[in-house]
Write a structure and sequence with these properties.
The chain is an alpha+beta fold. The protein is built from 11 helices and 6 strands. The N and C termini lie far apart (44 Å).
Length: 275
């Protein structure tokens, strides 16, 4: 049994509930993330949910897909353009229902899987538990641009601890993906969960630490906020360097958004589809 599958389902259902009342035209509204529309967000989540599912049910199909979408001959073609070649062109509410129908079935399949089952992926192989946790993380992260666009504060739950653990475990990855060595040991991390529970990671330190809310920490390690736009307390050169470029997701090194670039829209902005 993999309980993270239920967490993935819950996060997906929260985004579905946010989007269900929208009209088809609303899905063409542009978010603060790389000028992606809501349609772009759903296409991306749906396609990579499918890929994660294929890693469990049809490894050969997954590897064929990865070979095509990452083909060197595609050069600098943006990821979104590569992804569209594998989609059927559905948009708006039709795409929304396709995405939901698939993640509901997928969550059930992962829930019943062996947590230690090894699955192929674009990067190193990983366990089934890690695979569905990564889908939770990406759903949570890409949901943020939608919540921001619509001017809605997300109701966070303690299942974001899965993302916190990813953020802590990828301290070294942040540097590896940049061809660097960590400038020191991982700082002490002390976070307050949405429920008020306190979560500690690493060796306690009075001079090298990251403290604050789990939500702010997740926002930084998923790069949906610049650390300057959070209330995190960051002490020491290692903690400062890490939080300036933390990256808990796979793929090439990515810079975080600039200060002030990502934020929740005001009510006036959220109500204006042309914003």
């Amino acid at each position: 049994m993999i309980p993270q599958a239920d967490d993935f389902k819950a996060e997906s259902e929260a985004l579905y509930a946010l989007l269900a009342p929208l009209e088809d035209a609303d899905f063409d509204r542009v978010t603060q993330f790389r000028n992606w529309t809501i349609n772009d967000v759903l296409e991306h989540l749906h396609l990579w949910n499918w890929a994660a599912n294929e890693s469990m049910v049809d490894e050969a199909s997954l590897m064929a897909y990865l070979g095509k979408i990452m083909a060197p001959e595609l050069g600098d073609l943006p990821l979104k353009e590569r992804e569209r070649a594998f989609l059927d062109g559905s948009k708006g509410k039709q795409l929304l229902e396709q995405w939901r129908g698939f993640y509901l079935t997928m969550a059930d399949r992962f829930r019943e899987a062996d947590p230690k089952m090894r699955l192929k992926w674009a990067g190193p192989d990983m366990s089934a538990r890690s695979s569905i946790t990564a889908r939770l993380m990406e759903t949570w992260a890409h949901s943020q641009e939608v919540y921001d666009l619509l001017g809605v504060e997300r109701q966070e739950r303690d299942h974001i601890r899965n993302i916190v653990v990813l953020g802590v475990n990828t301290f070294g990855w942040t540097y590896h993906v940049r061809g660097e060595q960590p400038p020191g040991p991982m700082p002490f991390v002390q976070l307050t969960a949405p429920s008020g529970e306190v979560w500690d990671y690493g060796e306690p330190s009075a001079s090298s630490y990251v403290r604050g809310t789990a939500v702010d920490f997740c926002r930084v390690v998923t790069q949906v906020r610049n650390v300057a736009d959070t209330a995190l307390e960051v002490a020491g050169p290692v903690a400062s360097d890490w939080m300036s470029k933390a990256q808990c997701f796979a793929g090439a090194a990515q810079p975080p958004p600039a200060p002030g670039e990502r934020h929740i829209a005001s009510l006036a902005q959220a109500a204006n589809p042309n914003h």
